[in-house]
């Protein structure tokens, strides 16, 4: 994927099994926990392009969050405050070759950032 592409969408859930049944039954999504991502069911849409995860809901994560591919999370985070936004999650490792972070735009919208490659099996 290229810089600026939507790469992943996390949906906050309180009951992973219930959410898995709901989304797979409603949309036909294939949902599984790939090796290395146990406890984090990941979904794939029938187009085999769109996908994301069913992540634990908490006080700071109560609405779906889209993740945008960036060339460098460090460079992108450095621009956020100057453009009127806020960093709400600093760069965190997913795997040795991939990282994520989250920002909030001036209107309060929360967007995830993704950099790297992840082999999800």
From TrEMBL:
<dbReference type="InterPro" id="IPR053863">
    <property type="entry name" value="Glyoxy/Ble-like_N"/>
</dbReference>
<dbReference type="InterPro" id="IPR052164">
    <property type="entry name" value="Anthracycline_SecMetBiosynth"/>
</dbReference>
<dbReference type="InterPro" id="IPR037523">
    <property type="entry name" value="VOC_core"/>
</dbReference>
<dbReference type="InterPro" id="IPR029068">
    <property type="entry name" value="Glyas_Bleomycin-R_OHBP_Dase"/>
</dbReference>
<dbReference type="Pfam" id="PF22677">
    <property type="entry name" value="Ble-like_N"/>
</dbReference>
<feature type="domain" description="VOC">
    <location>
        <begin position="5"/>
        <end position="116"/>
    </location>
</feature>
<protein>
    <recommendedName>
        <fullName>VOC domain-containing protein</fullName>
    </recommendedName>
</protein>
